[in-house]
Records
---
Amino acid sequence: MSVNDEPLLHAQDLVRRYAMRRGMFGRPAEVRAVDGVSLTLRRGQTLGLVGESGCGKSTTGRMVLGLEVPDSGGVAFANERMPAPGTPAWRRLRARMAMVYQDPLGALDRRLDIGTQVAEPLEIHGIGTRADRPVRVTALLRSVGLRPDHARSFPHELSGGQRQRAVLARALATSPDLLVCDEPISALDVSIQAQVMNLLAEVQARTGVAMLFISHDLRAVRQMSHRVAVMYLGRVVEEGEPDDVLHAPAHPYAQALVSAIPHPGRRGGRIVLKGDPPNPAARPPGCAFHPRCALAAALCAREVPVLKPRASDRRLVACHVAQGEVAPGAGLPQPAMEAA
Ligand SMILES: Nc1ncnc2c1ncn2[C@@H]1O[C@H](COP(=O)(O)OP(=O)(O)OP(=O)(O)O)[C@@H](O)[C@H]1O
């Protein structure tokens, strides 16, 4: 097993529920934001996490970082089980992880200059001496394509792309093994997005940092990721290599998601999903996707499909039909034949 094949992070059966009240007098409901997610991320690699808004991507990222405590399940990082947040053991492991947020302006403190903010993690984790911090800050700024004099700039004096570079410089200050990038390009101009993606890839090649890359942008995920996991209503429904999952998806939801992006080599048009967007407070029984699935069989409404490897390829799929366990539409009442 090479270094890059070693798992850095393993999340096992993560579950996170939130209490939600519908209206002032409504009965409390439970949102199952994440409902049994298991993920493995190897050293130096990127795992892309995709799915429509509200499917639980950010909550998963926050649990991986220990910013959110799972109701059940757990995270192992570098072969150690993540300890309870706030403990010294947690702080030691947490220093090896960092986050890059969607909104760089929101992630930075408007009142502090960039140099102070990039130096902050060095101070918090006691890295280097006070005297050598300016040298370290300069090196960090250079490593993300900023100039040393940007240390004296305030966030509002930088462009959106420069601010995201500053956020990345701060994230890299502790030389983390893992970066959780939550929609890192979606708040940026299209022209800047490619620059930031190239920078992330270059940082990974140089430092060997692993990334959990959360994004709506399937093209970005395809470019950045070694593996991709597709989430639907709090669960992973398909996981595999980007060329498989994002080019020839097996799960009907992944097929619909991928069909929305035009691609020259792909056959077939856009798949329009039937029914309403999913409500995490009212999860359908069986496969949560079955009410919107054109291939659903009777079994899909009864039994939750398990995410498991397909016999025919290396990807993991949670779908009775894609696994060949049942034929599309099997056991459902046939539509009445139209009169000739
Ligand atoms: N603190 C919270 N309290 C109540 N509900 C929450 C909380 N955080 C998330 N949720 C709910 O959990 C579900 C999953 O949210 P999450 O932000 O993880 O999804 P997401 O896939 O990252 O969405 P987006 O792409 O829009 O950020 C959503 O229904 C959301 O409303």
---
Amino acid sequence: MKHIPRKRFGQHFLSDRLIIEGIVDAIAPAPGQPMVEIGPGLAALTQPLVERVGQLTVIELDRDLARRLREHPQLKVIESDVLKVDFTAVAQDLQVPKLRVVGNLPYNISTPILFHLLEHVDVVQDQHFMLQKEVIDRMVASPSTSDYGRLSVMLQWRYAMENVLFVPPESFDPPPRVDSAVVRMVPRETPAALPPKLLEELVQVAFSQRRKLLRHTLGRWLEARAFAGQFDTQRRAEEVPVAEYVALAQAL
Ligand SMILES: C[S@@+](CC[C@H](N)C(=O)[O-])C[C@H]1O[C@@H](n2cnc3c(N)ncnc32)[C@H](O)[C@@H]1O
């Protein structure tokens, strides 16, 4: 039976064969690799991926799609909201130290998914995600650009990232209203040790009023914490490189 795409699940199914091949090539799956796909949908990526890896774990929220996927003998289907999936437990179940995570993500929850996976970064080998191009622009942005913000700092601290493929709306059925792209995210091997929640709070305060100088926002926050170190607050949040935010969080 034909599946009617559900808007509330962000269902835009890939239909362009060349783009699908391009994404699979960018992922470069190899036999036996432990891989997890988020939101397999109608299996546009799932099928070529599983042909190369042999076995694949997929996470799908839509009950009808999950039922179809369960008929595939090489798939292990987790029928769940991805935000509730414990990726560390998935790696333990598969008895592997690290997972490769891939997916054409539902765009309405792409940022929460990225932050959820950040909590499980220790069991991730790499991530390849299709997202709104505008979100990827923010993820990989450099300081002193309008795209540079909370997402850039929180992710660049922990991952090396690159935009690997542009994907136009016509590549999907139904087409989304925005351009898309594929990002490769590789966890950094020796990240600075610090509590992520502290960095998150600091960065949120810094970017709360991005047009103002930091002395009005972060400066006050640092004063309240009796911070006695050196940090130039005569700048705007977007002028501060990731390494300086990380060093400040470490000094607190
Ligand atoms: C953009 S579609 C991609 C479908 C397919 N991978 C493709 O490329 O054609 C997003 C998929 O994620 C699923 N999905 C939406 N919200 C989800 C959630 N919270 N957890 C897991 N899967 C979800 C949708 O049902 C849909 O299959």
